[in-house]
Amino acid sequence: MNVVPHDDDHWTKYNGTQTGRPVRPLLRDAMSMAGPGGGRTAIDLGCGAGIESKALLDAGWTVHAIDGVPLMDSHERLTVDVRHFAELDSLPAADLIYAGYSLPYQPPDSFRRVWTLMLESLRPGGVLAVNLFGENDSWAGDESETFFSADAARALFDGFDVRYWAEEDEDGPAFGGSKHWHVFDVIAVAPFSP
Ligand SMILES: C[S@@+](CC[C@H](N)C(=O)[O-])C[C@H]1O[C@@H](n2cnc3c(N)ncnc32)[C@H](O)[C@@H]1O
């Protein structure tokens, strides 16, 4: 099993291997639901090598990208916020938030705080696309990361229109080894009235 620490050094190496991979389908599907960018704002939380941020920029979005160690080219509609999630105290208003394989890499108290910021920043009808880790994951039990039961993951989206829900619960490759992945892939639309 892969037991390397998920620190900035790890992510710098990981992000350096991502060049040329396809845009993640979760973001593609979220963009289809959200409609044209047209200068609207999207947030990419844990943007890494910026592949999904670039797809958003190419579709006309203004992008606010956040990561502890981003690896991205500049663009006139891109703001790169070099920051760890625990340091976030606000997010811009947004019509799409994508957090691909990033939010679980923080302790539960930080996750809850950042989740609240995300929900506050998402405009009515905005699209939220995230990967969350489940309790059967190989890494579950690591107190520096956040894992959910299916029910607890569902509860995060109370009041939202959950348009896509997939659960992966199987062994598979990881950066530097293999592991058991337990992941919830979710796309949900924010309510128009609370
Ligand atoms: C597995 S990569 C995912 C990259 C990309 N979002 C994707 O969908 O492939 C995780 C990214 O999240 C960032 N990250 C992990 N934990 C973080 C934290 N606590 N604060 C800020 N960024 C973090 C890492 O630096 C890395 O770039």
UniProtKB/TrEMBL annotation:
Keywords: Methyltransferase, Transferase. One of its GO terms (molecular function) is methyltransferase activity. GO terms for biological process: methylation. InterPro entries: Methyltransf_11, SAM-dependent_MTases_sf. Residues 1-12 have a biased composition (Basic and acidic residues). Residues 44-129 form the Methyltransferase type domain. CDD domains: AdoMet_MTases. Signal peptide: none annotated. Residues 1-20 are annotated as: Disordered. It comes from the Bacteria. The keyword Disulfide bond does not apply. This is SAM-dependent methyltransferase. It comes from Winogradskya humida.
